[in-house]
C-alpha cells in the first residue's frame, strides 16, 4: 500500500510538472517560486507526519495538494516573490538610497533579497497598491527611530531618493554631522516628485545640512508634518510654505534662519504646532497669526522679534502653550492675554515688555500651570487675583521692579510647586506657614529684595537669602518706658522717654548699654 502511494505521488508530480509547463510556463521560470515549492514538497514528503497521512488519504487528496501548489505558482507569474511581489526597479532604487546614507559597503541585495517581504530592511516600510505590487512608503535613518539604520560619516543625499514615487514618510536624523568636512545641501528641485505622496518630512540634528530651505518644498501638497530641527540651514522662511494647507505641524527651530515671520502663514488653518524658536528672526509678529484657529502650540522664543504682542492672538482659543521669551517685545502686557482660556503655559520672560500686572484679570487663567514673567520690566504690586489661578504649578516674577508685599494667599494654591519673586523691590514680612516653606524648599526664591524679611522662629525653615525681621520689645514700669530694638543691631539706637515735670518732655538718647544700666538701677532702688 505504501509503495502504491509513493508511485501515485510520483505520477502526480509528473502531472503537476506537465501542467506547469503547459499552462503556467512563465511562473515555472521564476526561480524563487519554483525552488520554494519544490523545497516545501520535499519537506512534506519526507516528514513523518506526511507519511502517516498518506496511508489514510486517497489519490484524490493527493491531487488537491498538487492543485494548491500549482495555483500558488501561477499567482507568481511575472513577479519576484510568492508573498510580497516587488518590482526589480523599486528594489534597485531602495538599495541605492540606503548605500548613499549608510555607505557603499552595504550589500543589500545579498542581505535583503525581499525588502518588502520576508527580509524587511530596518527603517524601511512598504505598502501594496492597486496594481498588486509593493512599494517603499517609509524611509527612516538615525538614532531617533527604533530599529533604523545609522548614517555613515560621509553620508550623502542620493538623487535616487526622489525616484521613490510612493514615499509617504522621510526622516533623516544625525546623518550630516559636519558643516566643514561633509556639507550637504537640500536640492532645489526634485521635490515635485513627492507632491502627490509625501506626508511627513523630518530633518533633525544635521549640523552638516547647510544652505537654504528650497521654496519647492511648498509643492508638497499632501504634507502634514514638516520638521526641520537643529540643522545648519540659513536664509528666510519660505513664503511657499503657506501653500501646505494640510500642514498640522511646522517645526523650524534651532537653525540660523533670519527675516520676518511671513504674514501668509495665517493661511495654515489646520496647523496645530508652530515652532520657529532658536533662530534669528526679526520684525514684528504678524497679526495674521490670529487666524490659526486650530493652533495648540506657538513657540517663537530666542529670536529678535520686536514690537507688541498683537491683540489678534486673543482669537487663539485652543492655544495651550505660548512661548515668546528671549525677544525684544515691548508695550506692556496686553489685555488680550486673558482671552487665552485654554492656555496652560505662558512664557514671556526676558523681554523689555514693561507695564504692570494690574490690568489683567488673572482669575480667568483657570487652566494655566506655568506662568513665567521674569525679567520683563514689571512695576507695581503683585495682585491678589494671581492667587486664584487654581492649577498654577510654577510662578516666576523674578528680576523685575515689583514693590509692595508678597501675597500670602499664594500659599492657598495647592498645586503650586515653585514661586520665584527674587530680584525685586518687595517689602514687608513673609507670613507664609512653615508647611509652605517645607513644601517649597529651594524652589521658593525671594532673595535680593532689600526691604523684605521673615519672622524667625526656632527650628523653622529659613527662606534662603532673606534677612530676619527686626522685632520691637517695650518695657515699662511706673513713669518710665523703654523701647528696645532687637534683631539687626548694626547702627541701632535705643530711645528712652521719661515722664515727669522736672524733664518738661525732653528726649534723651542713650546707647543700648546705658539704657540697660538705668533699667537695672531703677529695679534695685
Can you tell me about this structure?
This protein is α/β, with parallel strands linked by helices and 525 residues long. Among the domains are: 74 residues, no CATH class; 140 residues, Ribonuclease Inhibitor (Leucine-rich repeat, LRR (right-handed beta-alpha superhelix), Alpha-Beta Horseshoe); 55 residues. It contains nine helices and 30 strands. It has a 14-stranded mixed sheet with strand order 1-2-3-5-7-9-11-13-15-17-18-20-22-24, covered by helices on one side. Strands 8-10-12-14-16 form a five-stranded parallel sheet, with no helix packed on it. Helix 1 runs parallel beside helix 5. The chain starts with a helix and ends with a helix. Keywords: Cell membrane, Glycoprotein, Leucine-rich repeat, Membrane, Receptor, Repeat, Signal, Transmembrane, Transmembrane helix. This is Piriformospora indica-insensitive protein 2.
Could you give the topology of this structure?
Blueprint: H1 2-23, H2 25-29, H3 31-46, H4 48-54, H5 59-75, H6 88-102, H7 108-111, E1 124-128, E2 134-141, E3 169-173, E4 184-185, E5 200-206, E6 209-210, E7 225-231, E8 234-236, E9 249-251, E10 256-259, E11 273-275, E12 280-284, E13 297-299, E14 304-307, E15 321-323, E16 328-329, E17 345-347, E18 370-372, E19 379-380, E20 394-396, E21 401-404, E22 418-420, E23 425-430, H8 434-440, E24 444-445, E25 451-454, E26 467-468, E27 471-477, E28 480-486, E29 494-498, E30 508-510, H9 512-524
Parallel strand pairs: 2-3, 3-5, 4-6, 5-7, 7-9, 8-10, 9-11, 10-12, 11-13, 12-14, 13-15, 14-16, 15-17, 17-18, 18-20, 19-21, 20-22, 21-23, 22-24, 23-25, 25-26
Antiparallel strand pairs: 1-2, 27-28, 28-29, 29-30
Helix pairs in contact: 1-5
Pfam family, one: LRR_1
Membrane topology: Single-pass type I membrane protein
Transmembrane segments: 505-524
